[in-house]
Amino acid sequence: EADAGEYTCDTGDQQTTAAVLVKALPVLFKHWLKNEEVEEGRTATLHCELTKPNAPVEWRKGDTVLQPSDKYEIRQEGTRVELFIYDAEARDA
């Protein structure tokens, strides 16, 4: 449950109330993607690290959004995000 809301301190004779607003931090990159060189037929792995665990991410090749398939596997564990490109073809480069 989120911690934002109204909080009250009550003595029985008097009470005081205040609102707590929790601002979400932006998801930033702690470690950026690095260029990857891979031999044909091998698996290329790209990974980066975020400042927030399990933040929603989208992987794209050019303008195409990548979906998990036999070709692409997307893994996300905590703040680490990985893309596996299986069976790399020269035209995938």
- CATH class type of the domain at 29-85: Mainly Beta
Oligomer: single chain
Quick one: overall form? rod-shaped
Number of helices in the DSSP assignment: 0
Written overview of the protein:
The protein has 93 residues and is mainly beta. It contains no helices and eight strands. The radius of gyration is 22 Å and the shape is rod-shaped. The mean pLDDT is 94.
Describe the SSE topology:
Elements: E1 5-10, E2 15-20, E3 29-31, E4 44-50, E5 60-61, E6 64-65, E7 72-77, E8 80-85
Antiparallel strand pairs: 1-2, 3-4, 4-8, 5-6, 7-8
Provide keyphrases for this structure.
single chain, mainly beta, Immunoglobulin-like, two-stranded antiparallel sheet, about 0% helix, phosphoprotein
Concise overview:
This protein has 93 residues and is an all-beta fold. Helix content is 0%, strand content 41%.
